[in-house]
Task: structure prediction
Amino acid sequence: MAASSTPHTRPAHLSPSPAASTWFLSILLLTLVILPSSETCGEPPRFENMQPTGNVKPSYNVGERVNYTCNPGYLYRPPKPKFVTCGQNQQWSQITKDTCYKKACRRQGDIPNGVVNLINGSYEFGNQIEFVCNDGFHLIGARILHCQLTGSDVHWSDRPPHCEKIVCAPPPNIANGTHSAVGREVFEYLSVVTYRCHKASGPDEFSLVGESQLHCAGSGKWSSDPPQCKVVKCPFPELTNGRQTSGFGRKFYYKAQVTFECNQGFYLRGSALITCDENSTWQPPIPLCLKRQPLFMAKSRPLCTTLVTRHTVRPSDAIPSRGTSRTSTVSLNTCPWEEPLHVWVVLGYMITLITVLEL
Ligand SMILES: *[C@@H]1O[C@H](CO)[C@@H](O)[C@H](O)[C@H]1NC(C)=O
Ligand SMILES: *[C@@H]1O[C@H](CO)[C@@H](O)[C@H](O)[C@H]1NC(C)=O
Ligand SMILES: *[C@@H]1O[C@H](CO)[C@@H](O)[C@H](O)[C@H]1NC(C)=O
Ligand SMILES: CC(=O)N[C@H]1CO[C@H](CO)[C@@H](O)[C@@H]1O
Result:
């Protein structure tokens, strides 16, 4: 050990004197001759996949051989040496870790109606494989298998799964409605049923609330819950100081939409568009028309008003839900200073023109 750690290059501070060099070399030679442990190798190299066989000594003589044993899960690949020899140069002979290679689990092919994917590219232990069923089939069992070590051998973590054809049980029946496939027992993957509501016996129709179409999806489940058939009727949408602008009708069933507008001098708080929801309430709620409050004009110029003439053309009252009423508005402001700027510009131009003509 002492010899092998002696530096090969002489320290810089000794080089100027030839006498010192000679003395140093003598000591070195003497050391090599006296110490028998100089011709040895240290411990043999270690690897994650193989170990030196038997007990490891701290040092080995030149020519001594150390055999290797593959770790559990690894197998010896013959052409390469499975041992190291301590050489004259106190170095172990070459050995690489691919002397022992990973064992592989049994090859696993595709399964009926499904395929296998090699997640890590091979069947070696530590790796995984994944099963995927073809469209219209669903997997029963373990989707992923691990190639794992059991004792000194490797095995798959589970049995391969199987792919089962997707079928659905008949879709549920609903109150006051029916579906398009009553009486059928088995539904293939992706088959569709359509629900509809019965004709109501009372004055109000049933509305279909929810999805009208369901399809047989993966794992044999229907794509959604069945719809409901129920009477949905929102109250008449009344708006004080405002009026309805669209969605006229006598009855407001599920999803009916109405729009509003406030009268002149009022502003809308809330949504101008409301929809009748499944619980027979307007969403968002009916808005409010609130009086405009001009902050500084109200008191200083009480004389300013807008004269408004309105003509409303209503569609035929017999079919109120068809068409919309039209309103034409003519407004005249009593305060000229509230007129838009272009009026003043035209006025100024005319005054200038008259003045120029008189000159
Ligand atoms: C190494 O293995 C060889 C052949 O398998 C055998 O002859 C030899 O005795 C073994 N050496 C040691 C040190 O175990
Ligand atoms: C195999 O691949 C999976 C997914 O990429 C990864 O999580 C896992 O660590 C890999 N296993 C090995 C042994 O490389
Ligand atoms: C209707 O009422 C039910 C039960 O009170 C509630 O769960 C649902 O969210 C309501 N629907 C809407 C659109 O508000
Ligand atoms: C509005 C409503 O739910 N109507 C009828 C629906 O069907 C059930 C029974 O199937 C009746 O009890 C309801 O009156």
